[in-house]
Amino acid sequence: MSLVSTGLTPAVVAGGGAVAMLWGNLKLYFSKIVSLFLITVTYDDQLGMAMGTLLNKEFKCSRLGKKNYGGWNEYVRPIERNQLVVYERIPQEPTIWWRGWRPILIAYDGSTITATFLRGIFNTNILAIEIVDKFNGMHSTQDWRQGDRFFVRKLFGHIGLGTQEPRATAGDKQSAEVTESSRDKLMNRPLRWTRDELGQPNRKSAMSDLSLEKNVTDAVKSAVLWRDSEKWFKKRHIPWKRGMMLYGKPGTGKTAFIRALGQELNMPIYSFALATMTNKDFSDCWEDAMDRTPCIFLFEDIDAVFNGRENVAVKGLENGLTFDGFLNSLDGVENTDGVFIVITTNNIKTIDSALGIPTNGGSDGSMSSRPGRIDRTVEFRPLDEAGRIKMAKRIFDGFEDSKWKALLKEGVKDTGAQFQERCCRLALTLFWEEKNNQLKGSEDE
Description:
CATH superfamily of the domain at 203-379: P-loop containing nucleotide triphosphate hydrolases
CATH class of the domain at 203-379: Alpha Beta
Distance between the termini: 105 Å
């Protein structure tokens, strides 16, 4: 389009350009003058989440301005049940926060926090270091006897998501570890309950409640020794990692054992949904979970994903997790210190020996065919008599032994889950018979 058609003369156009340039220069000079008095700092990605955590721990939000709340279903430990918990979220419009007498203006767009404050009130470098130190301190592992680190988190890939809402997926800007809801829970403040009162229950006695054979209790002892021997491993330049394969029929207690093991070791459990993952998904999830070591990496029912080296979970689909991609993370060149790998299978015959299968037919219950990936194999069998007695005594607490002795023979071939169901049926019947007799007796009086 020509100047003539627009009705603008060259002088007018040149004048407009000069005005625009002058205005741009004025804004630049003004911003430099403002920067003499105000400092603006941007915290994005993980550092933004860490800054949000510090805000809620060390700062107070101004009562002026809009409020923002969110709610998530959480397990509340004091009342021992799940319920909706309300969180006070960081407002997405600029809001003043206070640390003592020192104000700071916070703007949050959902992923990035921008902080503005008067020069001299905060040292930007010191504040950044404090943000990281406070956040890392929440996950400190220096003393196993302090703090509660146990939780269970499921990690998904992209395969099979379709049009569903994003779950805890890998490969996004927000990683598998930091989804929208978990990010908000970390950054924002729960109301009514404290953070220590929220989250899955960590029963320190969970392992003692299980009916375990000697080969399983020996595996627990080796896991505890591994956990407490970090310095020993590192001094000898041996990778501080461990791998365990649990195998046996469904219902023999593998899943209950894993949960109890996480509680015994006071470690988080990251459960990888391998059937939903590509090689990149798996690598991303692995890298994200490494931020919380020491922890347990759980791969349940591996036989439902790999039959030998073939991925049978994604037949007909492209880009599923390959067996080589899986092995490369298990013993790759990256640092894997603090990783306790647990793999479960209902059919040990489908497992490739390159991953790790029992040696000597599993008679020693320990050494695998591929130490370094899987160091120890543990077979879960139907309950022996001692195990059945232990379980029955726990379930029939308060009843005479004669009430349940016959079940010991009836459940000779039962798995743990089957024998527990057998006991629960009779125990509930006895409980309500006793309850009804008490009610009837009180009515007769």
